[in-house]
């Protein structure tokens, strides 16, 4: 009975050691290359497995380093590209927000300037209170609507027109 238990223990150590060597990343093995460790464990079952566990197995504290492939990758698989893309997106967003703040500041400064009112006493608004820009108080713009009985557009300076060109009093 003790012989069977010893044989099962040796077989278990051998199989576990061989599977562990095969499952370990080749960059993480210590001492020898992964191929050398496989040959040692396969040819020297008990000694090779014991050496693997003592010398060759990677330490638990050693975090595996990411290995980037040497061949070209798609942009969405490249972590450096994705990091750069995120940085560019953040910079563009910051630039957009800066422009919006500058535009809002300019608009606030422009709105804080002198305001024109539609009162009759303000400069340039005498006689035109409540009328839209470019129209006279009679409702005619002076250039596009003919008066009743006239044919064609009216010319500036004709009778009944109140503008600076045709009215000598307005000059």
What does this molecule look like?
The chain is mainly α and 171 residues long. Helix 2 runs antiparallel to helix 3 (45-56). The chain starts with a helix and ends in a 60-residue tail after the last helix. The chain is built from four helices and no strands. The radius of gyration is 46 Å and the shape is rod-shaped. The model is unreliable at 120-132 and 134-142 (pLDDT under 50). The protein has helices spanning 2-23, 34-43, 45-56, 79-111.
- Tertiary shape: rod-shaped
Total beta-strand segments: 0
What composes the largest sheet? none
The succession of helices and strands, N to C, reads HHHH
List the helices and strands and how they pair.
Blueprint lengths: L1 H22 L10 H10 L1 H12 L22 H33 L60
Q: Keyphrases for this structure?
A:
single chain; 171 residues; 4 helices; rod-shaped
Q: What is the gist of this entry?
A:
By secondary structure, the chain is mainly α. Helix content is 45%, strand content 0%.
